[in-house]
Design a protein that fits this description.
- This protein is mainly β.
- Helix content is 5%, strand content 61%.
- The protein has one domain: Uncharacterised protein family Atu4866 (Lipocalin).
- The termini are far apart.
- The model has no long low-confidence stretch (mean pLDDT 93).
C-alpha cells in the first residue's frame, strides 16, 4: 500500500444524490460502502493517485473512479462529499 492512501484530501463520506449509495473513505486506506439499508455492503481497500481512485473489495472485485470538481464519478454513479 502506498502512503498516498493516507495523505490525500478525499477521506470522508461520499453519497449519491438520493443517499442510497454511501462510500466512507477511511484514512487508513480502507473503505466501507453502504447500499440502501444495508450497512457495510462492501468493504475493501483503495488507493488515490492524483484525482483517480482504485478500489479492491475484500471479495476480489476491482473498480475505479475519478474526482472532478469535488464530485466522485465511480462505476456510472455520481457521489457528492457529505460534510
Amino acid at each position: 500500500m502506498t502512503t498516498q492512501a493516507f495523505s490525500h484530501s478525499y477521506v470522508g463520506m461520499w453519497v449519491t444524490a438520493d443517499g442510497r449509495i454511501r462510500h466512507q473513505l477511511l484514512p487508513n486506506g480502507r473503505y466501507d460502502e453502504a447500499r440502501g439499508s444495508r450497512e457495510s455492503a462492501y468493504q475493501g481497500r483503495y488507493e488515490v493517485s492524483g484525482d483517480h481512485i482504485e478500489y479492491w473489495d475484500d471479495t476480489g472485485f476491482a473498480a475505479d473512479g475519478d474526482f472532478v470538481d469535488d464530485i466522485l464519478h465511480h462505476a456510472g454513479m455520481v457521489l457528492y462529499r457529505r460534510r
